[in-house]
Amino acid sequence: MTERPLGAQISHMLKDRGVDVIFGIPGVHNQEMYRGIEEAGITHVLARHEQGAGFMADGYARATGKPGVAYVITGPGLCNIITPMGQAYSDSVPMLVISSCLEQEELGMGRGRLHEMKNQEGAAGSVCDWSKTALTADACYELIHKALREFFAYGGRPKHIQIPISQLEKLARYPDQLEFARGEAVRRPEPMNVMYAATAIKKAKRPLIVFGGGAVEAAGPASWDADRSRCRIKEILKKTGAATFTTYAGRGVVPDDYALHFGSTLARPSSADVAAEADCVLVIGSRLSEVDLWRDDLGHAAKMIRVDVDEDTLNGHGGAFFSIPASAFWFLDALSEELGDIGLTSDWSAEEVSAQRTRWRREIEVERPGIIPVVDALKEALPADTMIYSDMTQFAYAAKEIYPMERPGHWHHPYGFGTLGYALPAAIGGKIGVGDQPVIAILGDYGFQYTMQELAVAVELELTLPIIIWDNGKLGEIEDSMVSAQIAPNAVIQRNPDFCKLAEAYGAEAARPTDLASFQKAIKDALAAKGPTIIHVKSDIALTSS
After folding, report:
1. Cβ atoms 465, 441 nearer than 8 A
2. Predicted local confidence at residue 181, as pLDDT
3. Whole-number pLDDT of residue 281
4. What is the DSSP string of 112-177?
5. Which has more pLDDT, 311 or 117?
6. Are the C-beta atoms of residues 178 and 144 closer than 8 Å to each other?
7. Angle of the 423-434 helix axis to the 50-64 helix axis, nearest 10
8. Coil, helix or strand at residue 23
9. 259: exposed, middle or buried (C-beta count within 10 Å: 0-12, 13-18, 19+)?
10. First-to-last CA distance in the chain?
11. How far is Cα 13 from Cα 11, in angstroms, rounded to an integer?
């Protein structure tokens, strides 16, 4: 086929493997990668900072289930995207970052080369699944093939490929066909393992199932057969009478109106008491990490069965008695078949679950006064299929536990790495990915200012995007933590700009609602607007409404 510079061939190869969008910023060191983007028929989204490009790629991947791809330059460009890579790593998000790099023999020579780093590959490798240097065209093609195949076969976690500038400039043939089919290496469970799990559940009187973010691929919009998977989950719950929890990332996998669903409340300390009452615990697609539980373990006394495609998760902490390496999609499919037509009645009751959820809601009301009424108003105002991106802000911390989710994979948050400034660029990437489907961003007044320059991208692309800024005029969560630790609050108060005038300066719409009714109207107006809308909400808005 036609010879082109390697930088151009990369875009053609990505396009042939389903990549439609690339996020990034061009520079003199990676300009050869931009030679083939338009020719390949790929849309490029120009971020205002490489951190924004990385979060956009993350948000796009979470919304679509497809890898998010970013192009960055040598040195500072790679450094700037390391934070989003760390976030994607902690939350198992498929992101491919491709950067240029200096010639290997030129490093450490004391020549003061532009964008020089001592160990660029190693720096990226500290926050991703793997980071490799492609010294030839064939090596570049093999690494891209390897990255995309691993995404499709094993799920998320970012990869980084860097190519020397001279190689990007060299003419190269298009790669020989490197075929792979989606799902060719996706793990199906061993029949004996499924039989073991089914037998344990059949014997149990109080079975408990915990669904994590890994179960979203079995029931979410990007799964191979989402309707079939959701039916399988409902069948399993109906057959077993199991009580359920979801992690924050797994919300929506279980319908919120399922009578025996305890919700996404594993972080409530007394959820350990609930887990202790179970006589069989099945955990599907969750690491049971610190940010899931905020304690050392689930609190269970019964034997735990864990299902995950990630060997590290199965071999990690959490107290698993029996581990099943498999994707959630195939395990749930096989488990439903293995359970057959049984109709078990468990000892869990809808009354005890409802009473416990009510107690936890009251706890949240006390811990975070004034937030729950706003969460409820938000739920009433949004269409059911809205995709939500939230930041590290107290509003989101409360909402993650009580906002009812009708479907999985529709609330995205920087769970593990916990990066401020995530929500705005991630929501931009998500909106690009889902098109006409409604998308909103929720940020704190402080976190918004980490990446507020990406508002220009939303304006430029005329994205309909409500951006809710929750303004308490300070780092409220840090202040509360300092007070709890008996530390005099220090450096937690900041002076904010006029967010509505800021929106105007960027060319966005703006609203400053003063009560819950005007808050809901502002959301609905923003969802009908052409372009983004800043909705500036003071944290006492619920008190004002009453």
Report:
1. yes
2. 45
3. 97
4. --TT--S-HHHHHHTTSSEEEE--SHHHHHHHHHHHHHHHHHH----EEEEEEHHHHHSEEPPPPP
5. 117
6. no
7. 50
8. strand
9. middle
10. 70
11. 5
